[in-house]
Amino acid sequence: AQKITQTQPGMFVQEKEAVTLDCTYDTSDQSYGLFWYKQPSSGEMIFLIYQGSYDEQNATEGRYSLNFQKARKSANLVISASQLGDSAMYFCAMSPLKYGNKLVFGAGTILRVKS
Amino acid sequence: KAGVTQTPRYLIKTRGQQVTLSCSPISGHRSVSWYQQTPGQGLQFLFEYFSETQRNKGNFPGRFSGRQFSNSRSEMNVSTLELGDSALYLCASRSSPGGGQPQHFGDGTRLSIL
Predict the structure, then answer these.
(1) Residues of chain B neighbouring A6 (CB-CB closer than 8 A)
(2) Torsion of CA B76, B84, B57, B66, to 10 degrees
(3) 115 residues of chain A, pLDDT tens digit each
């Protein structure tokens, strides 16, 4: 079974600063994917970034980067140059890289960007 | 390219009724998954369909069922509604199951049970 732990229920960050959202995971699968999603108050889930367990380089997508430490089983999301529109709930999720997989989500972290 | 479309956006039902939710995936996507989101349980996987076949199922009672049509559109049905079924139901699609492809979500259907 897979498990995702997000230990920060809420975070504050000053506009234009960087912020790191923590995510640790547990799985017995050797091959898996890690995902981050953003959920604004309106409810839709927005895909941000993906990291495969065999990827040696950390994933980056614009202002988002994923700090992947496989030995520690952590996949922290780093948001650089925070904007007011980044205020939302952020979910870390994982799934094994095999057919018919499903996403397992963490409890989420609420991020509030201050002006 | 249009995103995942879920209808209706909001729904109010009473206990004992049944409900059907609809999901149209992104064009070309053949895999559709459903998730339930509640404040207490968070996001939980319901089921995934690919080529009209259920490929995976979460730990939900048989009152929750789904199907997928030949055009990849999917419906989810909940029978004998209970108060605890009040939730945001999210549908997600991707081109095929497996691999590292991200699932792209719709805006959800918010179901309230009175």
Answers:
(1) none
(2) -10
(3) 889 999 999 999 999 999 999 999 999 988 999 999 999 998 889 999 999 999 889 999 999 999 999 999 999 999 999 999 999 999 999 998 876 578 999 999 999 999 9
